[in-house]
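ok so heres the complex, two chains, lmk if somethin looks off
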Amino acid sequence: MSTAAAAVTASAGAIGKDKSAAATMVEVCTVRLGSTTFGVPITHILEIVGSARPQPVPLAPVFVGGLVHYRGDVLTTVSLRQLLDMPPKEGRQDLLVLECAGGIFGLLVDLVGEVLTVPSSDYEPNPSTLDERRRALFAGTYKLKENLLVMLDPEQLDPMRLSAARAA
Amino acid sequence: MDELTREFLIESQEGLDRMERCMTDLEERPQDAELIGDIFRSVHTIKGTTGFLGFKRLEKLAHAGENLLGLLRENKLTANREIITGLLQLLDGLRSILKTIEAEDAEGTGDDEVLIGRLEELQLPAQAAAKHPAHAKAGATAHAGARAAAPPTEIKPTQPAAPAPEPPELPAALVPSAEPEPAAAKAPAEAEGEAVRQRTPIAGSAAESTLRVDVTLLNRMMNLVGELVLTRNQVLQATSADPNMTMLSRRLDMVTADLRESVMKARMQPVSNIFSKMPRIVRDLSQSLGRRVRLQVEGQDTELDKSLLEAIKDPLTHAVRNSLDHGIESPEVRQAAGKNPEGTLKLRAAQEGSHVIIEVSDDGAGIAVEKVRQKAIERGLITAERAAHLAERELLQLIFLPGFSTAAAVTNVSGRGVGMDVVRTNVEKIGGKVEIDSRSGKGTTLRLRIPLTLAIIPALIVRSINQSFALPQGALSELVHIPPEEAAGAIEWIENAPLYRLRGQLLPLVFLDRLLMPNTEHKMTTERDNFIAVLDPDGRRFGLVVDGLADPEEIVVKPLSAVLKGIGLFSGATVLGNADLALILDPGSIAMKAGVSMREEEVALGAESELEADAIKSLEYLLVEAAGRQAAVPLTEVLRIEQIPLSRIEYIGYRPVLNFEGQLLPVEDSGGVLAAVEGNPNAQIIVVVCREGNRHVGIAVSHVLDVAAGGDLFEAGTTQRTGGVTLLKNRVTGVVDLGGVAPLPATETAQTEWSQSAGSVA
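and the predicted structre for the whole thing:
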């Protein structure tokens, strides 16, 4: 779990070092949300579950997509759509089971795509024009040929952290 | 912390636990060489290992203790009260250093000089006496006097076999160095030790067949078994229609049930784990309070889930403290009341069905009901008029009210009530119940009713806002159905607070849909079915209105993430038989969120009405019909009403039995219900599960008709009350004689009959 995550955080922190680590390749799982392609470092992904049916939780914070049953545990899921204030999507959603320092949780997205290997030299940090909340959730972007791959920071998506951020 | 230190900590804790157990026995049998040997070994092991690991402070303290114990072991000293107190202090000292090591990985910089000095002083009885002549002499005299009837506590070189009490002037001859014939003195002591060894098998011999397992691993196993139970439920549902799968799914069903039971057993620990802490507490407290108390312990082998055991440790300690502090009187008072000056505190544990009962009873003064009444009025917990109408038993319940227990109550009320609400809250948190029973002048019994396990609980599945929710049955007392056409009249409103008249008492209602989705429009009560689940968590009684009811299910409790726990209405989640997820409702939090509280007048009324309802219930009967005839079952004895397929009834010889939640239930069929539907494989029968003394019995009936209050009947002429019949709805109805249901064959015979009848069962 360490290498790519370290690569992302290191690159997010220090842009100058990127040039020297030009040869490092990072594996990223792409997910679609509306028209945007997001990336999640595969080191944080425990499992990809297609078409989940989350059970809604009344009175839960807005970003909670509901509960899913995963290997004997009941997982809290974060709906990326609701988190980014996008309208809810009809029909099936895909689920990524993510592991972060605070534990395991689910991430609901429109569609899980392929796994890409991107060179860390294509990385750029978040643009300064991005609003503050998104800047906290995103961990920079990779310049792909056709489009941009916006990296998500799994640690920041941890429901515990989201709710703390909301309270603050 | 390295593996070695961790291992050392675990071992030392176990050693000290063993030492503590031996210590209280030692006070009764100060000559027992086996006990002294055990204690010596515990301290010696700690000293040995600690030197190796380099914990110098711990080593020094253990060394001082070992020296003292060495003298005891060699019979050069005899354990008297002061030495035992010193050894207990040593125990505490060692414990606290171990705790520091566990927390900080270093033994800290505390000063043990005082304790070490004390331990050294105890090794030299003559010098100690010289230093504190008055103290030592008084101690020795009192000691000899108090133990007049006990076995000799000092070594008597001149008359080793005589068990006569020690004359006070002898201690001078007891200085170890002055002992004239050490060999002669040792010989009988050793012989005694030998006898003890034969009586009690050496502790720890079980160690070879046991294994230390990490609790997290057990938790994981429990989790997986829960998962298996859910999968089984789904397989059973999916394959119920396929005759080819019947045998296979049945086998899966049985293996899963066995596995679940085994894993649950693995998490069980005997209650002696917490009971063994009590002698020390009783000893220390009775000394400081000036009481004389004998502790009786019963049912130490009763087992309980580890996490539950942890959870009841504090409430139990609290109850024991209460008994000593407020229950048992001082020896003088007791003597004046014509009681044995030595009070008795009894701890009893026993398993009763799917619960473990733990009782703390004393033969003390009991609770002064009048003072409870005054106190409750003073604190504004109830009004004076209400208090005047409450019966003794109902008044006792008031001590569980929060607010009854405050610091002032300790001094003002000579009855109990210190933190009793905390005891109740803690026990109810794990799904248990607390009952209290007190007779003025005779004593008090506190009864904790604890479920065997936390992980799997019975729950009723309810529907609201198009979702399923699980409602734990522990807090559920009854269900009321109000069809839409009756809702307008049945549910009344004060402003916007809905109320329901339950047997003449107003019951505050909480609509689950409005609670969960406060900002949405909901169907009017007159447009839908209303089911009221009457709940009474922590004595807050209210009705939860839901849209529908599904079957009761045994659910596996899964924890929720902290974010969702923060909502405060759900205690967990579970997976239902149809693979859907359901949130588990927490009745206590719902009451809190909805503002149902004990303090408010109308709710206090509700709580009392519950008590009154209890009194009425004793006269209420369940009216059943068995093969055309009506019969009555006392409602207080009815635990559950189950509809089951006839195929679940099995036979031991000719006797019908039901395997009910893993326990065997004899089924009474005097009405001939089973015979009437025999041969019909799809027949459903209703079994009323009743309590009869300590056991449960089932009664096979064709219909459950109603609940009604029964009246006594008197024989014409003699005006004697008739037994076995009651007047129900103006008809003379026979009462089912639960005591008449023959018990099942016991132990071995049952087993053989089982194997014999196994063929006929299938």
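quick notes: The longest helix of chain B spans residues 3-28. thats all i got rn
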